[in-house]
Fold these 3 entries.
Entry 1:
Amino acid sequence: MATAYTPGLLVSEHTTIRKVRRLPIQGEVLAEVGQAVAPQDVVARALLPGKPHTLNVANKLALLPEDVPSHLLVKEGEPVEEGQVLAATKGFFGLGKKELRSPVSGTLEMVSRVTGQVTIREKPVPVELTAYLRGKVVEVLPKEGVVVETSGAFIQGIFGVGGERVGRLQVAVSSPEEPLEEGHIGARHQGAVVVGGSLVTLGALRKAAEVGAQAVVAGSIWDTDLAEFIGYEIGVAITGQEDIPLTLIITEGFGPMAMAQRTFRLLQSLEGREAAVNGATQVRAGVLRPEVVVPREGEGWAAAGELPTSLQVGSPVRLIREPYFGLLGVVTELPPDLKTIETEAKVRVAKVRLQNGEEVLVPRANMELLAGD
């Protein structure tokens, strides 16, 4: 039962990263195995079907459904333009003539003799899939996408919002305990991935968005500031699709928490390098963590170690439930017997020494193993 813990966040100075880049529908793959790619290189593309619009022609022109086809001026499969006349009635001696115009540009996809309705589908929407990482293509998924591989630094966060972005790392504070405030942000951060220490303020986020920063990476944030920046409360569903001007990655949790020393030192050592970031987060089934990837191929680094697979005395952990949410510590004891907790459930626990020296007894399911090199 020593493995009864939540898989931890990976903070690695050097590891191999593979990303599956897959189109939402089948399309055309443009890259080949072995091809070197940059983050913005298009590796596959497809055409998403346009939005369908249904018009009740029979109702609007006072026709019987079976008479609709004979009054159409456009045939099935033909293109139409917005405002173009689709169907018309002649009326009596030219009086009472009615016309129906297309509300959108697209294609007349379907005509029903049963309902008297027609469907117009808007023009297809082109979708281009980029490599996201600087690396090489190691596998092609026919008609779907590719797998891109790189080697370099890899840092997972505990929570994030915003999608994939790329920029140069710039550390804006001097220590992991220093908050990231509005005064730390300036025009020099345009296009950058800005790294803070502990709490990132709402003012700092707004200033970073104003100067055109690509992303902000910080230790923590107030949940109220996050909601105000995004414009709504974040629920339990997957994030990453928010319509916001930058990506935000939080490495520790909510409330004032310093970034882990090891994470901050690693980001400091990578300053000025190109980083790919993604804030997408899912905390339920199919856990998905926000990430910072800094390619370092060809630098002669040793192969990365494997992710630890068991909880042991001395293991660094992060607590992920109240009242210790987000706190870091080290396992000092793994009692073999089940313990009764406040809910009266009997569970396996671990004794953890927090960074402030306090020792607490925590259910093993309420912690995650901090992994790294």
Entry 2:
Amino acid sequence: MRKILFTLLAALTITGCNAQNNKAQMTNNKCLVVFFSHAGENYSVGNIKVGNTKIVADYISELTGADQFEIVTHKYDGMAYTPLTELAQEEARNDERPAFEPQINTSNGEAIKPSNIKEFFDQYDIIFIGGPIWWGTYPQVMFTFFDTYDLNGKTIYPFTTHEGSGLGSVVSDVRKAFPKADVKPGFSIYGHEVRTNKAKVEKWIKGLNL
């Protein structure tokens, strides 16, 4: 009996050490989530206070300890779904670059304003980039971000929320924007399931072996 108890105790100890090592391994690579998320009227989920992509970004931060860089624009505030889709199509057709404001939050929810954005990005090894799919790719405001900041040399994981478009062309678009980055295969999730299927995001993150 004593031998059996000792064996069980040893097994539990090993399991706990492995869990701690896995957590340590994940935190060795500092992560950032860059995203644009649209609240208000959204297809399939109605009028929402928190955008679908923001929810996924929060899951990623919870699972990895990642800080957040939110791409914020007020251009679409208060717009109904149909006019918004028409505006988004026009922006894509004209290859527009809408203005945005960065909103940076650490993993503990603290908002920060770095004095040097380049140095801010330099501290991260892994960057998740996410947004909804508007007309086959990310919203044009995200391309403003791509033109503004250099993420070459980073490991990048694109992700999207959508209602049938999957990843669209976002992976190839990110690779085109940052040809010297290591852009990994992307992850997509339906916008209407982000509130009820956190497990899908967890499975994706665990499979990355960060």
Entry 3:
Amino acid sequence: MKPLHVNPLKLSQPMGATLAFLGVKNCMPLMHGAQGCASFTKVLFTRHFNDPIAIQTTAVNDITAVIDGGEYSISEAIRNITQKVTPDLVGLFTTGMTETKGDDIKGASLLLKDKQKIVYAHTPDFEGGLESGWSLCVQSMITQLITPKERIYKDKVLLIPNVNLSPIEVEKIKENLELFDFDVYALPDLSDSLDGHLGVKQGALSSGGIGVETIENLGDAGLIITVGRSVKKCGELFLDKNTQSTHLHFDSLCGLEACDDFYAKILAYSGHKKPLASIQRWRKRLQDILLDTHFVLGKTKAIIADEPDNAYAMAKALQEVGTTITAYIAQRSEVMEAFTCNVCVGDFEDVEAELLSHDAIISNYHAERLSHIYHKALLLRGFPNYEQIGIGLRHNVLYEGSCHFLVEFSNVMIHHNEISHA
């Protein structure tokens, strides 16, 4: 492993934290750090989603960083926020500077608890990445907001998605679970906050998501579903609130094998004998797509460079159709052990060194330059994507989304091969 990243793949933990709090209704993500940190995050996500992003900062500078223990800048930021809007929740999270400084954000939150409901999370950007930042915030919401319950409702389901799942993917998973007569809640829920709907006006707070009161009452959920290894610990942590609940974990919901496993476990839990006809129909379509795309993707060598959970999901789905995969992930993850292809922690320098021996690259917008230089096919996935619109409406999960993913990549390769041989 190299001692440094050159042209890195990874995004920071505070960015993942920002997205997590945007999945809570009327929440104000508050980044405890310098003004530039929040500005960069706001610009990146605004360009990615093509929607306004609500975020505030404590605007720590070189003077306050030395003389302030954190309480003053946090209380001032919240005072300024609440003069203009009334958030149901303030999501307070740290950056590298304030973590190095050792600010006591827990103490600051306790001092302000009578004035404003706050969830705090430690998310320094000198460790982890996008996935861990999201996961740490979800863990904080579970431990700090959810009230323990003595009973459960078997048909009440809590879905905990990983950060890579788009708003429409969260919605599709919820809709499929509702077909089994479940009452489904997602934490966080980006499906109606960053899904690209036309709002009345640009709001200073998150425009949708799961309500704070709803989160507080999730303790009686009978079934906890986690999607992605980065959030597996969140599901395990929930069991401390209610040991009677059942936790089902899935590393991926993309591809035939992963989807079969998902529906088999849901059927076993719910007591249904078989899924609805519409689900069975989409499975048959995916089987046909696997056959149709095999002739192109079966002879393709592709590099996937993305966040660990997303890279794993795409690699598994493409290997089912015969694609040869080399995966580079942004940071170490427990899901590395589950890959069935070559995988290593790397950056775009590593990707560039391997690209000549491959036909295509699947990665974020920053891979576009490499694809042009080496004349390789490019499928845009991950954060950021400045090239395309409708990112929040793209779905690659379950049988239906897996069909869309394989068809899209196959068509990209067909088009690329035609141009290459012209």
